Amino acid sequence: MHPPLLRRLIKIMRESKQFCYLCLLLWTFSGCAASQSPQSSVFELAPDDRPVYEQLMRETDADLRYFRSFDLTPIAYRVVLPKAEPDVVVAFIHGIAAQSKLYIPLGDSLAKRGIATALLDLRGHGCSGGARGDVPSLDALVRDVRLFLDTLRRDFPNKKIVLGGHSLGAGLSLRFITEFSERKKLYTPPDGLILMAGGFLANPRCDSLELAERRQFLRRGAFATLDGWKMAAVFPAAILNLKPYPIKLILPEDELVTKAIKDTLLTTEYTMQFLFAAFPTDVARAYQLIKCPTLLVVGQRDELVRICDADASLQRLINAEQKELFVVKDANHINVIWKSAGAVADWIKQNIVAGALPEQTPPE
C-alpha cells in the first residue's frame, strides 16, 4: 500500500474511538438537531446582557500580541493587566464559536482585583491564523496551548500561571493535561486550573428536577446541527485528505449575532477533526492527573451543562491539592463568564496567591 495512504488509514483507525465518543457527546449533552430540523437556537440574548455584547463589538484589536506556533501559524492573544504588578496570570481559552473578545469582561474584573489575564484566540478563531473551524493535526491545539503557556512564562517571569477554559476551552485544558503530564521534559504544570461550563464528567444519577429543567431548555431549540451525509463522509474523506464540515452551530437570530458572524467575530462551522483535537478521549483519567488547585464553575441556568455533572466531576478530583465548585446564581452558559468573575478572583486570591510557588523545571 502507498505509504501516505497507509498513514491516513492508521490515522482513521486511531480516530474511531474519538469519533464515537464525540458523536455521543454531541447528541446527548449538546442538544444537537439533524440538519433538516427547525434551526432554533437553545441560546437567547437576555436584555440585561445586550449592553455587554454591544460594548464588546466596539472593542478594538490594537492591544493584541502574537506568537508563532509549531507550524508558524500566528496565534493571537490579548493581555488585560492590573495597575499594580500582578502575582498571577490567568491563561484563559475561549469556548466554541467564540474568541478572546468575549472574555474581556472577565479580564477587566480580574484586573480590578490585581490579577492579570491572557485571553487566547484558538487557531482558526478571532485574529489567529489557520483554517476556520479546523486543525491540521490532532495535537495542534494542545501544542498551541503549550507554546501559549511558555510564552506567558517568558512574558511574566516568576509569576504563577493559572490555566482556565470556558466550555470547549475547558475540555481543551483537560486534553492539554492528559497530553503532556507524562512528558516531563515538555510539560510545566499550571499552578491552578479553572474549568468553566465545560469539561465535566457525565453523572448518570442526575436529579430528576434538573433533568426536567434541561429538557425545557432543549425544547426551546438546539445547540448545533449535524449533517448526516457529511458525518458519514468523515472517514472516507480522510483517505483523500478532505475535511467536510458536518457541524454547524445554531446561534440566536439577532442583529448583533448577524453582525458578529459577518465581521468574522464568530466561527459557526467545524470539522470533526477540530473537536477530536479539543477534547480528551478519557475524561475520567484527565481528572485523576490533575494535582493543582482546581475550580469548577457552572451557571445555575446553563442551557447545556448540568450542575450534577459538575458535582460528580468535583468528586473525581482525588489528587487535586484543593478543589471547589461554584454554582453561579441566574447565570447561563455565556454570561457565567462575567457573572462568576468576582468569585473566581476571590478563589485565586485565597488558593493561588496565598500559596507558595512550587519549584518547577522549565521545559526543554
From TrEMBL:
Q: Which residues form the Serine aminopeptidase S33 domain?
A: 85-333
Q: Which InterPro entries match?
A: AB_hydrolase_fold (IPR029058), AB_hydrolase_sf (IPR050266), Hydrolase_4 (IPR022742)
**What keyword terms does UniProt attach to this protein?**
Hydrolase, Signal
Which Gene Ontology terms of cellular component type are present? membrane
Give the signal peptide range: 1-33
User: Care to name a GO molecular-function term for this sequence?
Assistant: hydrolase activity
Q: What is this protein called?
A: Alpha/beta fold hydrolase
